[in-house]
Specification:
Radius of gyration: 17 Å
Order of helices and strands: HEHEHEHEEHEHEEEEE
Structural class: alpha/beta
Distance between the termini: 44 Å
Number of helices: 6
Shape: globular
Strand order of the largest sheet: 4-5-6-7-9-8
Largest sheet: 6 strands, mixed
Strand content: 25-35%
C-alpha cells in the first residue's frame, strides 16, 4: 500500500481538507486539558522570514497553525503553489488553516486553500474556532449571522478570527467599520475567549467587547515603519488552553 508523505495532499484536495484530516489525528493525541496552537499572519513578500517563523511555530509542536491571511501579494496560482510548497517543506506534519486576506484571489483561494468561511470543531477538546471573511474591510450580514449561530451553539472554548481588525479607540487605521457595532453586540457576554486579526504588519494586544483581541501580522511581510500602537516585530502568537481557559504569549523571531 502506498503511504503518502504527511503533507502530500490527494489530487484535488485543498489545504483545508488535508489539514482537517491531520487535525483529527492530532486531536486524538493531545491532552484534552492542556494543548496549544499558533496564530500568525501576513507572510507575503517575505519567504525567508516566513520559513523562520514556521520553524519557530513547529518548535512548540502545536495542535495546528492558524494563518490570519495575506500569504500572497496578488493571490495568483503561482504564489499559492509556492505558499503550499513552503508548508510542505517546513511543517509537513502540522495542520495549517488560512483566513482569507485582502491580497488573496478568492477563486484561487477556494480552489487550492479552502473555504472563505469555516469552523473548526474538536469535540474531544471542547474547542471551536470560527473564521470569517472580512477581507474587503466589511463584516457583512451573512458572516454576522454565521458568527451568531456558531457562538450560540459553541462549546466552552471558542475563538474567532478574521483578517481585518475592527476600528476601535486604539485601532484607528487599517481597520473595518461596516459591521463593527453588530460584531460587538454579538461578542459581548459570549463564551468567546480570543479574537485574532492580522492586516497590520505588527503585533498588538487589546480588548474588544471585553475579549482579548490580537493583531498578529508579523509572519514575513514588510513590517510597519511607524505605528501609534503595537510593536513592529516578526513573531508568532502562542495560545495555550489549559483546563478550558486560554492564555497568550507573543514569541518574537530572534535574529
Amino acid at each position: 500500500m502506498l503511504v503518502l508523505p504527511a503533507y502530500q495532499t490527494c489530487q484535488g484536495q485543498t489545504l483545508y481538507e488535508h489539514s482537517s484530516e491531520l487535525l483529527a489525528a492530532r486531536a486524538r493525541q493531545v491532552l484534552p486539558d492542556d494543548y496549544s496552537f499558533v496564530v500568525m499572519g501576513d507572510s507575503r513578500d517575505g519567504e525567508r522570514t516566513f520559513l523562520q517563523v514556521l520553524a519557530l511555530a513547529r518548535s512548540y509542536s502545536p495542535l495546528f497553525i492558524l494563518h490570519a491571511g495575506d500569504y500572497s501579494n496578488k493571490g495568483s496560482e503561482a504564489e499559492t503553489a509556492n505558499f503550499l510548497s513552503l508548508l510542505r517543506r517546513s511543517v509537513p506534519e502540522l495542520p495549517v488553516f488560512v483566513v482569507v486576506g485582502n491580497h488573496e484571489e478568492r477563486e484561487v483561494f477556494a480552489k487550492e486553500v479552502g473555504p472563505l468561511n469555516f469552523t473548526l470543531d474538536i469535540a474531544r477538546l471542547g474547542l471551536r474556532l470560527v473564521a470569517l471573511d472580512n477581507a474587503d474591510s466589511a463584516l457583512r450580514p451573512a458572516e454576522q449571522e454565521r458568527l451568531r449561530r456558531e457562538i450560540a451553539s459553541g462549546p466552552a472554548t471558542v475563538f474567532v478570527s478574521m483578517h481585518v481588525p475592527p476600528q476601535t479607540e486604539r485601532w484607528r487605521g487599517h481597520t473595518f467599520t461596516q459591521g463593527v457595532e453588530q460584531l460587538e453586540k454579538t461578542l459581548a457576554g459570549s463564551r468567546v475567549q480570543g479574537l485574532f486579526f492580522a492586516h497590520s504588519h505588527l503585533y498588538d494586544r487589546s480588548e474588544f467587547a471585553g475579549i482579548p483581541a490580537f493583531i498578529t501580522g508579523g509572519a514575513g511581510a514588510p513590517l510597519v515603519w511607524f505605528t501609534r500602537h503595537g510593536v513592529p516585530v516578526n513573531h508568532i502568537l502562542l495560545v495555550r488552553v489549559k483546563k478550558g481557559r486560554a492564555s497568550y504569549r507573543m514569541v518574537p523571531l530572534k535574529g
